[in-house]
Amino acid sequence: MTALTLSTSSAAALRADAVVVGVAKGAKGPVVAAGAEAVDKAFGGKLAAVLETLGATGAEGEVTKLPAASGLKAPVVLAVGLGEVPAKGDGYDAETLRRAAGAAARALSGSKKGAFALPIEDPAGVSAVAEGALLGAYTYDKGNGNGENAKGKDKKNNGPLAEVAVVGGKPRDKAYKAAAERATALVAEVNRARDLINTPSNLLNPAAFAAEAVAAAKEHGLKTEVLDEKALKKGGYGGILGVGQGSDAPPRLVRIAYTHPKAEKTLALVGKGITYDSGGISLKPAGHNETMKCDMSGAAAVFAAVVTAAKLGLRVNLTGWLALAENMPSGSATRPGDVLSMYGGKTVEVLNTDAEGRLVLADAITRAGEEKPDAIVDVATLTGAMVLALGNRTFGIMTNDEAFRTTLHEIAGEVGEQSWPMPLPDHLRKGIDSPVADLANMGERMGGGLVAGIFLKEFVADGITWGHLDIAGPAFNESGPFGYTPKGGTGAAVRTLVRLAERTADGDLG
Ligand code: BES
Ligand code: MN
Ligand code: ZN
């Protein structure tokens, strides 16, 4: 991964391939942001005018590259747009810095070192610039299975920007150092999630995903337990088995646990891990299945969050449940109309085999509840309906507790993830009644994202606070990269889960 350093040198004196400065949209043209004083000086105080001549406006995400003036060690200046100049007295908010740093890091892919001289006022500013730059620098390069690059044997990937130096960082100040260390640990795990999501389904089946979890757990002192198809059968996990039985690659349920000796709270995180969702017998049409390797994004997020908590040594217990299966049609696949006996004994009539996420999650949520955690949060690319409702960049939040819904929404906002609270209206419950089982896995078409939430709620043990994040929209970016978000797997929800763990550790859940 891209290396991160905090630099005490001035932006002018730093040896780098490019020095990154911020430019905002002022009333009368572009305005150079704080942090770029030394660079502006090298341009005789005319950097804003030069940028304006080059067509820069300061619009968010805009990137302008220009040759450096003499007196600067870096040969290139990269000006990145910050959007509107903040109101007097206000600094740039964290997400603006994160996005700008991400856009700059993307524009520097293939370079060795970028010196980021953006407007940083405090350790939070360092966090934002470091996170944005490291997230933006991400490239996926395991694509063809030869472990080298995604473009074929003879073609070279540009590769990520190798080093990010944050100008204005104070490496000897504890708070600054901690901010940099947190950013490094967190982004490494967001990028781990992205790698898992981007890995083609022929290279990442449930057993392979489970093996990744076991290997990472070993490295970071976590406990794992892997239930294979035999153990799942013995345990009565009819949901996970029913979804996985059409595939030649059998399902797994992974429990990956981080514990802290002084923890007062325990969070259970449950992730949907469909390594490929063909729809099963209710087969998806072409046009709807090309990106379905991303259907394990929830499990990837949960896995990444648990490892991050371990790296940061958070004072909280975190149990991750990865519900892994491949949803395929075959002679052994579950049929529409079949009845599954779920973990814990409830029965479910499968009306549509493409509504498989809720089946694997139901088993895992029931199992997680047996351990009586203080809260359960599940994360899933669960419904196309949520994408229709909220678009491609916002995840939906459903809970059995209104205060918790607000808290999750706030936390997501704090870390720069877009989310929106969604209701679980009681009247939708009767839609999932079944004449032959306790429940059906499909109900009314309208409000399909909420129907899925209502289904899951049935499997949450009484008295446990529960939240459900439907990340079907933001998990996988099919269009071009923007800010610090690459094309493909995004690592959606990892930062929200980590912040939730931090707030829980601090006893600060609002
Ligand atoms: N994995 C899909 C949901 C999805 C859609 C994720 C688009 C990412 C992007 C899920 O398993 C699914 O197929 N859901 C169905 C449910 C329906 C059959 C009740 C859907 O949303 O159409
Ligand atoms: Mn499906
Ligand atoms: Zn799915």
UniProtKB/TrEMBL annotation:
Co-factor(s): Mn(2+)
Record text on cofactor binding: Binds 2 manganese ions per subunit.
SUPFAM superfamilies for the chain: Macro domain-like, Zn-dependent exopeptidases
Keyword tRNA processing: no
Protein's cellular compartments: Cytoplasm
A Pfam family reported for this protein in Swiss-Prot or TrEMBL: Peptidase_M17
Entry-linked PROSITE patterns: CYTOSOL_AP (PS00631)
Source taxon at top rank: Bacteria
Domain Cytosol aminopeptidase: 352-359
Family membership: Belongs to the peptidase M17 family.
HAMAP family, sorted: Cytosol_peptidase_M17
Protein name per UniProt: Probable cytosol aminopeptidase
Gene: pepA
